[in-house]
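Lab notebook: predicted structure, single chain.

Context: the supervisor wants predicted structures on file for every construct in the current expression panel, including those that have not yet been purified. This is the next one on the list. No modifications to the sequence; it matches the entry in the shared construct table.
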Amino acid sequence: MTRFSIALRMEFLLQRRYRLLHAGILSGALWLAMLLPMPSGVRSMVEPYVLLGDLTIVGFFFIAGAVFFEKDERTLHALVSTPLRFTEYLASKVVSLTTLSVVLAVLVAIGTHGVDFHIVPLVIGAVLGTVIMLLAGFLSALPFHSVSDWFMPAVLPIAVCNLPALSYAGLWDTPLLYLIPTQGPLLLFGVAFDKKTISFWQASYAVIYPILCAALLWLLARRMFDKYMVRGN
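Prediction complete. Output recorded below exactly as produced.
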């Protein structure tokens, strides 16, 4: 087995140990409890916002929580002296938690719409949005020693990443929100439930721009990990 496959297997085990899988299932159940009583038309309008919120929970909060668990157990500091590379370490987290997020998104969509939705834009939006939120959550947790220190500063990146909801709702129509990489996944969620039509350039933007932003966040995560975990600044 490769180092990455071993790390990925460990991440799935840690999801169970840290109760992240249980928390994800509970989150999905709560979203269903909120959506199912709604009329079908209202449900289709609300569901993209729900999926964006779920990305925040599974993406931002789950990976930050995992980082703090590992800091408390001193496994992050021990990682530096192991053969496991940073890329393999972070990729295993991203793959495992993205898998959880996509499965939850699809199950919530099936639970509320049956098969009456477009699965391709839903899955693409869930993958891209989750990766963005995961990397943002990982970056936000690295400088802090405890959840209590981290919690209030974390409000800012969460708020910024959720600003596209204002544009989607028609409350703040400005092209500046296209600079926020979660705008693309939200547009794809709208397509998934046939409540928003987008042009070719918007579809291209919705896929390409989040990928470019994820690449930049990955590079930044490498630098910050070296700064706070390797050199201990």
